[in-house]
Specification:
Layout lengths: L30 H14 L2 H4 L8 H4 L9 H21 L4 H8 L3 H17 L1 H11 L1 H19 L5 H30 L4 H9 L1 H33 L1 H7 L25 H14 L8 H17 L1 H12 L4 H26 L8 H18 L6 H30 L4 H24 L3
Helix pairs in contact: 4-9, 4-10, 4-11, 4-12, 6-9, 6-19, 7-8, 7-9, 7-19, 8-9, 8-11, 8-12, 9-10, 9-19, 10-16, 10-18, 11-16, 14-18, 14-19, 15-16, 15-19, 16-18, 17-18
Length: about 450
Amino acid sequence: MAGRDLTSSDLETGEKTPSGQTVQHVTRRPIKKAAAQTWHKLSVTPNACSERNMPHATPEVLGPKPLDGGWGWMVVFGAHISIGFAYATPKAMSIFFKEIQEDLGASYSEIAWISSIMLAVMYAGGPVSSMLVSRFGSRPVVMMGGLMCGVSMVTASFGSSIIYLYLCIGIIGGWGLCFNLNASLTIISKYFLTKRPLANGLAMAGSPVFLCVLAPVNQYLLGHFGWRGSLLILGGMMLNCCVAGALMRPVAQLCNPRSCTPPKKVEQTNNTKTRGSCMKNAKTFMDMSFFKDQGFIIYLIGNVMFIFGAYAPIVFLSAYAISQGVTEYSAAYLLSIMGFVDMFVRPGTGLVANSKWIRPRIQYLFSFAMVFNGTFHLLCPLMRTYPLLVAYAVFFGVGFGMVFALIFECLMDLMGSQRFPSAVGLVTIIECFPMLLGPPAAGNVP
């Protein structure tokens, strides 16, 4: 002890300091042990390195540690359903387009705008959905989204004009899918930390699973009930998103009894606090401070470039196969092969990303997935026989599944769970532009 002053950390409970004060409730904490614990926390915290330019949040802001299991797996199941409907519905709607075109006397380009408007609203409404999730939580937002989706399909079944379908399916249904998508992604970050890549992979697997299920189901319904009856039944099916939202119960906010004080009743005599809350929500609606983060900028640029070309191969793969002499029946199977592979790759990628060797380097795995995806798209023009096209579809499913299993996990890793709702809203509204422009631009390439 020579050479420095005694502190309470050097004494046992009940001992006295040189000034005569008694030390109470103090436990020895050697310096080496404290340093080791601090290093352990830094090594297991995914955001410790990626947020080095951002101030660390206080324990009050971070909240309780995620459960990483338990009821969280039921939340993943609910997210699997809501995300599955969000991504699969705009694609599976194309099965009804021919019948709608003949019934309403619209052109194919007018009918195709139904899915385009639906996707654009789903992505552009991200900031609004994020603000509602921050204000009310994920459960009511997902339940409202499921109700809007069901109502949109039911009301669309009575439509007599293409404009009416734009309003019902495109706008109302698009908002419902937007609420389902963003709220489901946010609640997963509240329940999981160490197992979050696996949870995200299982939830995002809902897209290929529901696409593989909805496509034949819609074809069956169309053959037996027509497009109006099919939309009516599909609306009833989409009400199951309300059940999925009911599974997303809020995480219990635990507090320290020493720091928690009972709430005080305050009589508000004016609307000053209300105005302050509205201003805060307005700033959260479009948080431009994200553009000061270098990691977010790099993520956003790569994302926009990927989305611009990600969906064009899905749109044109069958047509390209037919132009190479493949029969229409065999060409249709290429997308089924791609979706089947994607179905297993997403949870598998989440499992790999959850390992202790990959988790600290998950950004590199995401970058590899993007390069892998782009490489096989460049090789696609060389695939001129059906076996080679099948091989391309398999690798396309692998690359596509890897990217979408990690795309939101990497954003969570960069921004942290507290800033993720605002970040994902900003990302989705920017992504809606390459989503709309990508396939038409690819179609104009000679």
